[in-house]
C-alpha cells in the first residue's frame, strides 16, 4: 500500500495493530478522523493518553477502575462470600448487564494458553488462591468461556484449591461450547449464572 504522506502511513500502521483492524480498515478510519473537526480527533487522542496514564486495576479483584478499589468491590450491598472468576472486564460487564449476580468478581486477565505463551504465572491465579486462604469466600463460580483454554484454566484453578472447603461451581452450559462469554445474550447468560452447577459435575460430562 503506497502512501502519499509518511504521517498518514505511520497513523495507519499504528491503527492496524488493533485487533481485527487491517491496513485497509485502518486507512478508512484515519481518513474519517481527518474529515472530522480537529478538536474531535484531538479529544480521542487525549482520552487514550489519559486512559493509559491514569487507569487503575482494582486492588481486590483486578477489574479496571478509576480508583484503587472498583465500584463493585466498594459496594457494601454486594456479598463478599461469593466470587465469580472471569477472564477480563468484558465478562464482568456482560454478567453485570444480566442483573442476576450480586457477588464479587476476580478478573484473571486471560486464560491459560500455551500456544499464545500464556501460563498460570501470567494470570492473577495466585492472588485468587490467597483470597481463598483468607477464609471469607464460600463459593467460587467459574465463568470463563467454554473453550479448551477456558476449561483448562478452570481445571487448573480447581486443582489448586482442592484442599480448601469451599463450593466450586461453574455457570450452566446455556452458553454453547466454544462461545466467548461476552457475546452471549443477557437472558441466556443470566440463566447460566442462576442455574450454575457443581464444577465436579462438569468434569463428569466432558
Structure characteristics:
single chain; Helicase, Ruva Protein, domain 3; 5-stranded mixed sheet; 206 residues; alpha/beta; elongated; 2 domains; Dna Topoisomerase Vi A Subunit, Chain: A, domain 2
Secondary structure layout plus pairing:
Layout: H1 6-15, H2 23-35, H3 38-54, E1 56-57, E2 64-65, H4 71-74, E3 82-86, H5 89-96, E4 104-107, H6 125-133, E5 139-142, H7 148-160, E6 167-170, H8 186-194, E7 197-198, H9 199-205
Parallel strand pairs: 3-4, 3-5, 5-6
Antiparallel strand pairs: 1-2, 6-7
Helix pairs in contact: 1-2
Structural overview:
The chain is α/β, with parallel strands linked by helices. The chain folds into two domains: 6-54, RecR Domain 1 (Helicase, Ruva Protein, domain 3), CATH 1.10.8.420; 57-205, Dna Topoisomerase Vi A Subunit, Chain: A, domain 2 (3-Layer(aba) Sandwich). Helix content is 44%, strand content 11%. The strands form two sheets. Strands 4-3-5-6-7 form a five-stranded mixed β-sheet. A hairpin with a 6-residue loop joins strand 1 and strand 2 (64-65). Helix 1 (6-15) packs across helix 2. The radius of gyration is 20 Å and the shape is elongated. It starts with 5 loop residues before the first helix and ends with a helix. The model has no long low-confidence stretch (mean pLDDT 88).
Amino acid at each position: 500500500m503506497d502512501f502519499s504522506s509518511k504521517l498518514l502511513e505511520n497513523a495507519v500502521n499504528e491503527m492496524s495493530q488493533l485487533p481485527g483492524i487491517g491496513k485497509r480498515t485502518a486507512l478508512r478510519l484515519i481518513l474519517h478522523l481527518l474529515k472530522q473537526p480537529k478538536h474531535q480527533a484531538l479529544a480521542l487522542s487525549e482520552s487514550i493518553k489519559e486512559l493509559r496514564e491514569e487507569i487503575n486495576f482494582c486492588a481486590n479483584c483486578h477489574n479496571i477502575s478509576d480508583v484503587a478499589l472498583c465500584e463493585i468491590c466498594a459496594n457494601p450491598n454486594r456479598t463478599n462470600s461469593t466470587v465469580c472468576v472471569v477472564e477480563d472486564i468484558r465478562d464482568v460487564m456482560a454478567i453485570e448487564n444480566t442483573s442476576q449476580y450480586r457477588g464479587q468478581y476476580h478478573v484473571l486477565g486471560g486464560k491459560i494458553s500455551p500456544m499464545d505463551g500464556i501460563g498460570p504465572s501470567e494470570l492473577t491465579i495466585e492472588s485468587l488462591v490467597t483470597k481463598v486462604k483468607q477464609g471469607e469466600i464460600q463459593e467460587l463460580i467459574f465463568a470463563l468461556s467454554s473453550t479448551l483454554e477456558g476449561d483448562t484454566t478452570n481445571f487448573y484453578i480447581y486443582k489448586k484449591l482442592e484442599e480448601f472447603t469451599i463450593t466450586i461451581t461453574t455457570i450452566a452450559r446455556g452458553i454453547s461450547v466454544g462461545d466467548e462469554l461476552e457475546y452471549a445474550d443477557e437472558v441466556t447468560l443470566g440463566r447460566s449464572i442462576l442455574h450454575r452447577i457443581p464444577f465436579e459435575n462438569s468434569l463428569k460430562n466432558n
